[in-house]
Amino acid sequence: MLIFHLGPLATSLFSLLAILALVLSFVMLASHWLKNHVYAFAAESWTIAAISASIGYYGHYPELYIIAALTALFRGTFLPYLVLRLVKRLDIQREFTPLLKPSSSMILGAVLVIFSYEVSRQLGVALHLTDNIAVLALTCMFSLKLIGFLMMILRSEAISHILGLLVIENGIFLGSQILVPGMPVLLELVIIFDLLTIVMAFGMLVRFLQTHAGTTSSRGLQKLVG
Amino acid sequence: MVNFAALIAALWIIPGVAIILMLALRRPHLAEYLNLLTSIVVFGLTLAILVAVPNKALVTGAQYILLTPLGAWVLFCVGLVYLLASIYAIGYMRLLPEEKPRLHKYYALQAGFALTMLIAPLMNNPGIFWIAIDFTTIVSAFLVGFEKEAECIEAAWKYLIVVSAGLALALLGIILFYWGGTFVLGPTYALTWANLREVAPKVPETLLFLAFLLTLVGFGTKVGLAPMHTWLPDAHSEGPAPVSAMLSGALLNIALLGIYRFLSIVDSGGYSLMGHTALLVLGVLSLFVAGLFIVRQDGAKRMLAYSSLEHMGVLAIGFGFGGPIAFAGAMYHMVNHSLNKSLMFFGAGNMMRAYGTKSMSKMRQILRYYPVTGAVWLLGAVAITGAPPFGLFLSELTILRGGILSPNPWAVWVMAILLILIFIAFMNHFRRMIWGPEPEPDEVPTLKLSLWNSLPMWLALIPVLVLGLWWPSGLWGFFQQAFLVQP
C-alpha cells in the first residue's frame, strides 16, 4: 500500500500540498466576495490535481495522470468558469447577510480542524497508523468536509451553497487520492462527470429561483415550513 | 434458465428509447400514451424478473449488475408505482391546461426518473450505486420544480442541496469502506458489495463503524429519516401528484435498500447489534417527528409526505430489528406502502384540483361531492394508518412481532404508541374533511374527475385490500429466502 512506503521527500510534498488545500479553504471562509471564493476553489482544485499527479509519480499509478489532468480541467477550470458565469448573470458580487464575521468563522473553522484531527488520530491509533501521512489525509478530508458544511450553514446565497458543496467534494477527492489511489479509475471519472452534471443542474435551478422566486438567498426562501 | 442480462437490458433500453422519441416528436398526446406504454412494458419486465429471480445473488454484465431477491423486490415496487403514476399522470396533467405545451418534457422527465430508479437497485458497485442515486436526485428535482411556481422551485432547490450534501457524506463512507478493504486485499480491488462484506471481519471496528454511520446518514438523507428529513415534506408536497407518488413509493425504497446493503457489511464484520441499533434509533426518531407534524398539519400532500416519513421509519425499524420475521414484515410493508401511498397521493391530487387548494381545512364534505373518489381516498387513509383489514396492518403487525424477539424490544412499544397517535391524527383530519362545515358557495367544487383520475386509485386499493386479507404463502417463502441471501 502506498501510504506505508513513501520516501521522506514524497511525504513532505504530499503534506505540503494537502495543507495548502486546507489553507485555501480558509481563504474561502474568510472572504465574502464571491469571486474570491471561486478563485480559491479553482486554486484548491489545481492543488488537488498536483496531489494526484505526484501520487501517480511516486506510487506508480500512471492512470492518475489522467485523473490529474481531468481534475485540473474540470474542477480547476470548467467548474469555476461555470460558477463565475453564474455570478455574473445573477449580478451578485458578495455575500450580504453572513451569519458571522470572517474572523469568527475562521475561529470556528479552526475548531473544526482540531476536531477532525482528533477523530483522525483516534482512527490512526485504531489502525496502527500513528505518525503516518494517512492521519494527515484524513484530517484534511474531514476538515474540508466540515468547513464546506460550515460555509453552507453560515451563508445564505445560493452560490455560496454550491461552493460549499464543491469544497466538500474536493475534500473527499483529496483524501481518496492519498488513501485509496488504487480505487477503480472508472469510478473517479464518473464522479467527476457527476459533479459537472450536478453543478449544471444547480445553475439552472438558481436561474429559476431568480426568475420565479425573485430571490437567490435562502433567507428569502421561507414559503415552505411545518 | 432465464436470460437476466437480456431482461435487464430491455428494462433500461425501452425507457431510454421512449425518452428520445418523446423529446424528438414533441407531441403532448403521443408522449402521454408512449409513457403509459413504456410503463406497462417496464412493469411486465420487473414482474418477470421478480418471478424468475433465483435464490442467490446473481452477478452478471461484466460484474457490474447484481440481482438479489431483495433487489428484485425493490425493482418490482418501482415498476408498480411507475405504472400507476403513468396512468394517473394522464388524468392529472390534463387538469393543468397551461402546462400542455411542455407536456412532452414532463413525460420525458418522468420516464427518465423511472429509468434512473430502474438502474440503481441493480448496481453491484457501491460507488456506481451512489452515482445512480445522485442521478435520481437530479432528474427528480426538475420534476419537483416542474410547475415553476415559487414554492416548487424553492422545494426543488432545497431538495437538491440537502440531498447532495447528505450524499457527499455517503461517498466519504464508501471511500472509508474501500480503504478498510485495502489493508486486506491490497491497494487495488474491485469495489463490490460482496468484496466489502468479505473483508469486513478484518477491518478495525472503529473504521467500519465510522464508515457505516457516514453511509447511514448519507443515504438516510435520501430515505428521509429524521433528522435529515427536512427536504422531504417540501419536495413531496410541491411536485405534481404522480411525481410525489414516485418519490415516495419507489425512490425512498431504493435508498433504504442501499442502507440495508451497507448494514449487511457491518453484519458480516460481526458488529451486527451496533449497526441495527443505529438504524432502529433513526427509524424511531422518524416515527416520532412524523407523528408530531401529522397532528398539526394542514396541507394535504404535506401530511402524506410526513406519512412517508412515518413509513420509512417503520421500514427502518423493521430492518433494524433484524431476524427473519421482522425482515419479511418490512419487505411486505414496502410493497403495501408503495401501493397505498400512490393511492393517497392520487386522491390528494384529485381533491387539490377539485377544490383548488392544498389546504385540508378548505376541502369540505368530500364524500358528498365525490362519493366514490372520496370514499376510496378515505379507505386508503384507513389503510395507510395501519388499520385492518388492509395489507399495512399485517405488515406492521409482523414487524412488531419480529421486534419482540429482537435485541431491542423497547422499540416495539414506542412504535405501537406512535402508530396509534398517527392513526388518531389522520382520522381527525379526514373527519373534518368529511363532516366539516359546508364549503362557501363560491368554493363548491365543480370539477368532474375522469376515469384516468380514479382508475389508478382503484388499481392500488384492491391489491392493498387483498394483501390484507390473504398473505400468499408463496410470498412468505420468497421473503424467507430473500432473508437468507446476502442483499
Secondary-structure blueprint of this entry?
The complex is a heterodimer of chains A (226) and B (487).
Chain A: H1 8-30, H2 34-59, H3 63-90, H4 102-126, H5 133-154, H6 158-179, H7 185-213
Helix pairs in contact in A: 1-2, 1-5, 2-3, 2-6, 3-7, 4-5, 5-6, 6-7
Chain B: H1 4-25, H2 28-52, E1 58-60, E2 65-67, H3 69-94, H4 103-119, H5 126-144, H6 150-185, H7 193-199, H8 205-223, H9 231-238, H10 241-268, H11 272-295, H12 300-321, H13 324-355, H14 366-369, H15 371-384, H16 391-404, H17 410-435, H18 451-469, H19 473-484
Antiparallel strand pairs in B: 1-2
Helix pairs in contact in B: 1-2, 1-4, 2-3, 2-4, 3-4, 3-10, 3-13, 3-18, 4-5, 5-6, 5-10, 6-8, 6-9, 7-10, 8-10, 8-11, 9-10, 9-12, 10-11, 10-12, 10-13, 11-12, 11-17, 12-13, 12-16, 13-15, 13-16, 13-18, 13-19, 15-18, 16-17, 16-18
Q: What's a quick, concise take on this entry?
A:
Chain A: It comes from Acidithiobacillus sulfurivorans. The complex is a heterodimer of chains A (226) and B (487). Helix content of chain A is 77%, strand content 0%.
Plain-language structure description:
- The complex is a heterodimer of chains A (226) and B (487).
- With 226 residues, chain A is mainly α.
- Chain A contains seven helices and no strands.
- The radius of gyration of chain A is 18 Å and the shape is globular.
- Chain A starts with 7 loop residues before the first helix and ends in a 13-residue tail after the last helix.
- By secondary structure, chain B is mainly alpha-helical.
- Chain B has one domain.
- In chain B, helix 3 runs antiparallel to helix 10 and helix 5 packs antiparallel against helix 10.
- The longest helix of chain B is centred in the middle third of the chain and has 36 residues.
- Chain B starts with a helix and ends with a helix.
- At the A-B interface, helix 4, helix 5, helix 6 and helix 7 of A face helix 5, helix 6, helix 8 and helix 9 of B.
User: How far is the N terminus from the C terminus of chain B?
Assistant: 21 Å
Shape of chain B: globular
What is the SS-derived class of chain A? mainly alpha
- Report Rg of chain A: 18 Å
Question: Number of DSSP strands of chain B?
Answer: 2
Give a short account of the largest sheet of chain B: 2 strands, antiparallel
Sequence of secondary-structure elements of chain A: HHHHHHH
Structurally, the number of domains of chain A stands at 1
**Integer average pLDDT of chain A:** 89
User: Could you give the order of the helices and strands of chain B?
Assistant: HHEEHHHHHHHHHHHHHHHHH
> What is the structural class of chain B?
mainly alpha
